């Protein structure tokens, strides 16, 4: 291992694999290493099911769970926004040729202890129990406003400045009540707290527009999910990198990373390689990151769909913080055999939130109560790390941990951030003109 590389990447999480694929396509000589023996790091999918049980200290799954090979269980559960940045990256890099997606059947939100479908059309909006008749008219005017809002065209602003007007003032302008504000902010904009209400409204309006444009792609919901689980995503980008000359080494422990004389030296099993730049996940650079919080997650195995979701084979259910007396929302993602991640007759429900106490199980009680009978559950915590703000400019770049959100927009923003730090250029989405269907002919 005495070769020199443009970029050495440590860790095969989705962020790292996308950067590996993109940089390889652009002609960089890339070496990609991971201490694990599998792709995906935290973003892997566990298969067979025994692997999941063993991860949590149990010997093997019972026979009642069906064939172990029929399971692909995500450790970091997330959906893709159909018109979001990650889908644009998939199309831009043509990684869609390795993957197949299916639309999530519905998006739901808790209001007044009842599960409601987030309207996916004007017809659904008219029949929705989320709002009364007069509120529905006000909500429709608000949606028309956001759809026509163009940040570069002040004549579309209707007196709302995206850089100064708080979102609370936009809600007041359209007379939206507290419940409507709650599901717009948490089930459409996907904010995890109410802090956004006092911030300039530009970001929230963009999020409403993204939700609407993603929803318009497929009609049922704005979310997509890959067949066989999220572990397929990092592997798809790893294949892309390999096609363009990237070198992958799994099961390679890293002993030392040292910046010296304008280069970076990575030592593994006594051998050292030289790189112009190194990118790695927080687990490889514990001295370069700071803890930003703790996530509480649960994987639940059910033999039925989530109650109140019209027997959905897949869905998202959001429990806004106000509805459950918390500071942060709780997210539930549900998938099943429809996505080839469980045997027929079984469902997976993934729960995630930001920890507020030292009692992880207790924090998720409100979510467990919405799932009905749970056959098996695994509750775990994950620390969230971000790179320190004052890192030296020494050609070492650190990615962020995954957050509690159930979509990849924040992960995509981190990819764009690191890409710009590494190349000095903005990530170019100009080639993303096609839809996923166009690439799956």
TrEMBL record:
Belongs to the Rab GDI family. Its main location: cytoplasm. InterPro entries: FAD/NAD-bd_sf (IPR036188), GDP_dissociation_inhibitor (IPR018203), RabGDI (IPR000806). The keyword DNA damage does not apply. The keyword Cell membrane does not apply. Coiled coil: none annotated. One of its GO terms (biological process) is small GTPase-mediated signal transduction. SUPFAM superfamilies: FAD/NAD(P)-binding domain. One of its GO terms (molecular function) is Rab GDP-dissociation inhibitor activity. This is Rab GDP dissociation inhibitor. Regulates the GDP/GTP exchange reaction of most RAB proteins by inhibiting the dissociation of GDP from them, and the subsequent binding of GTP. Transmembrane segments: none annotated. One of its GO terms (cellular component) is Golgi apparatus. Keywords: Cytoplasm, GTPase activation.
């Amino acid at each position: 291992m005495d070769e020199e590389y443009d970029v050495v990447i440590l860790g095969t999480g989705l962020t790292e694999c996308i950067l590996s694929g993109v940089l390889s396509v652009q002609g960089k000589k890339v070496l990609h290493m991971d201490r694990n023996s599998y792709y995906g790091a935290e973003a892997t999918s566990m298969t067979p099911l025994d692997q999941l049980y063993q991860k949590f200290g149990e010997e093997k799954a019972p026979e009642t769970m069906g064939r172990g090979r029929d399971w692909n269980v995500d450790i970091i559960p997330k959906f893709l926004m159909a018109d979001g940045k990650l889908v644009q990256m998939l199309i831009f890099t043509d990684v869609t040729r390795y993957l197949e997606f299916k639309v999530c059947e519905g998006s739901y939100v808790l209001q007044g202890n009842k599960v409601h479908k987030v309207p996916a059309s004007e017809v659904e909006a008219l029949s929705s129990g989320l709002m009364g008749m007069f509120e529905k008219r006000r909500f429709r005017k608000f949606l028309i406003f956001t759809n026509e809002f163009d940040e570069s065209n002040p004549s579309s602003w209707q007196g709302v400045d995206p850089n100064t007007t708080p979102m609370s003032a936009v809600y007041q302008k359209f007379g939206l009540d507290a419940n409507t504000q709650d599901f717009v902010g948490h089930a459409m904009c996907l904010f995890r707290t109410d802090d956004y209400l006092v911030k300039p409204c530009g970001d929230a309006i963009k999020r409403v527009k993204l939700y609407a444009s993603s929803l318009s792609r497929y009609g049922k919901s704005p979310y997509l999910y890959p067949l066989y689980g999220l572990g397929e995503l990092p592997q798809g980008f790893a294949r892309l990198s390999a096609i363009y000359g990237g070198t992958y080494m799994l099961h390679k422990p890293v002993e030392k990373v040292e910046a010296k004389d304008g280069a970076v030296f990575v030592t593994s099993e006594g051998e050292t390689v030289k790189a112009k730049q190194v990118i790695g996940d927080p687990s490889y650079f514990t001295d370069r990151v700071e803890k930003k919080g703790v996530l509480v997650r649960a994987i639940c195995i059910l033999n039925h769909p989530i109650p109140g979701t019209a027997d959905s084979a897949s869905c998202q259910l959001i429990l806004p913080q106000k509805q459950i007396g918390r500071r942060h929302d709780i997210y539930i993602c549900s998938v099943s055999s429809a996505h080839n991640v469980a045997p027929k007759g079984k469902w997976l429900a993934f729960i995630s939130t930001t920890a507020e106490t030292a009692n992880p199980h207790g924090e998720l009680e409100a979510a467990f109560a919405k799932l009905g009978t749970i056959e098996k559950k695994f509750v775990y915590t994950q620390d969230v790390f971000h790179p320190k703000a004052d890192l030296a400019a020494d050609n070492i770049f650190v990615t962020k941990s995954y957050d509690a959100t159930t979509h990849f927009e924040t992960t995509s923003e981190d990819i764009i951030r690191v890409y710009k730090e590494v190349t000095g250029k903005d990530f170019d989405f100009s080639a993303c003109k096609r839809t996923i269907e166009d690439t799956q002919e």
